[in-house]
Amino acid sequence: MALDQSFVGRSYPPIEPYEVGREKIREFAEAVGDPNPAYLDPAAARALGHADVIAPPTFVFAITFKAAEQVIQDPQLGLDYSRVVHGDQKFAYKRPVRAGDRLSVTSTIEGVKSLAGNDILDIRGEVHDAAGEHVVTAWTKLVSRAAQEA
Amino acid sequence: MTNSTKAPAYDDVEVGTELPAATFRVTRDTLVRYAGASGDFNPIHWNERFAKSVGLADVIAHGMFTMAEAIRVVTDWTGDPAAVVEYGVRFTRPVVVPDDDKGATIEVTAKVAVKLDDHLVRVDLTATSAGQKVLGMSRAVVRLT
């Protein structure tokens, strides 16, 4: 069944702030095999003008996707998550995420479409730090594939 | 190492300037590590039995893992990863990761597609695995000095 268009524009309350830790950034950088010292060494990060180690560009997805669970699991929206694939992902950064940040995410449904039986859901996550400053915006497109009628 | 390379200057790059290409290996071990680091424990990324039960050929890499690898071509080029001010991709095809020591490889090339104002350039990325394009519309906006 197609998703309800009236959900477009709906925002969800911000999640509990996520505290970005140096060791979590290190773990992520190691998982993607990236030795860039800006992720690992506070002195190297400071030499580039950052207050502490910074996170790789896609790190913040773990936080915004967790926030998007509110949308995905909203029983009123009724998305069939077992059929969902990740279609597109985009980030626009005001500044890099860095160790010590306490980040909150506000998720908004930007689009609801039905194409050839597939439900397409666009979610925007606005990420702010503890001072309320904008850090990054993440756009996530999820596609719930049409159920195959037997 | 990335910090020994000098970041390119805006005036020195032209439309068509190619960034150094890179090849990234991904094995089952990589996927387990990435699942832990990212918090994405979807079993299609580590459980062959489950992956096949939902119609996949085998375990596939996280799309976000592929996205993370591809941008390394840009962050290695700039040195400072904060130079990336925008980054977006479309996930066109999964990277299938066999259960062996070789795993799969992701090949990434990138070039400057547009010079924008304010020392910004748009870099277009191409990521392939087993000869197939795995990311589409893969673009980064990068601030140069």
How would you concisely characterize the structure shown here?
The complex is a heterodimer of chains A (150) and B (145). Chain A has four helices and five strands. Chain A has 150 residues and is α+β, with helices and mostly antiparallel strands.
| Distance between the amino and carboxyl termini of chain A | 16 Å
- Strand portion of chain B: 35-45%
Largest sheet composition of chain B: 5 strands, antiparallel
Count of helix runs of chain A: 4
Strand order of the largest sheet of chain B: 1-3-4-5-2
Number of strands of chain B: 5
Average residue pLDDT of chain A:
94
Class derived from helix and strand content of chain B: alpha+beta
Helix content of chain A: 10-25%
Topology of this protein?
The complex is a heterodimer of chains A (150) and B (145).
Chain A: E1 18-19, H1 22-31, H2 37-40, H3 42-47, H4 61-72, E2 84-93, E3 102-115, E4 118-128, E5 134-144
Antiparallel strand pairs in A: 1-3, 2-5, 3-4, 4-5
Chain B: E1 18-26, H1 28-38, H2 48-53, H3 63-70, H4 72-78, E2 84-91, E3 104-115, E4 120-129, E5 132-143
Antiparallel strand pairs in B: 1-3, 2-5, 3-4, 4-5
Descriptive account of the structure:
The complex is a heterodimer of chains A (150) and B (145). Chain A has 150 residues and is an alpha+beta fold. Helix content of chain A is 21%, strand content 32%. Chain A is built from 4 helices and 5 strands; from the N terminus they run βααααββββ. In chain A, strand 3 (102-115) and strand 4 form a beta hairpin. The relative contact order of chain A is 0.23. By secondary structure, chain B is an alpha+beta fold. Helix content of chain B is 22%, strand content 35%. Chain B is built from 4 helices and 5 strands; from the N terminus they run E-H-H-H-H-E-E-E-E. Chain B has helices spanning 28-38, 48-53, 63-70, 72-78, and strands spanning 18-26, 84-91, 104-115, 120-129, 132-143. A 5-stranded antiparallel sheet of chain B has the order 1-3-4-5-2. The model of chain B has no long low-confidence stretch (mean pLDDT 95). Chain A binds chain B through residues 24, 27-28, 30-39, 44, 47-50, 54, 56-58, 61-62, 65-66, 85-93, 95-96, 139, and chain B through 1-3, 24, 30, 33-34, 36-40, 63-65, 67-69, 71-72, 75-76, 79-82, 84-91, 137. Strand 2 (84-93) of chain A pairs antiparallel with strand 2 of chain B.
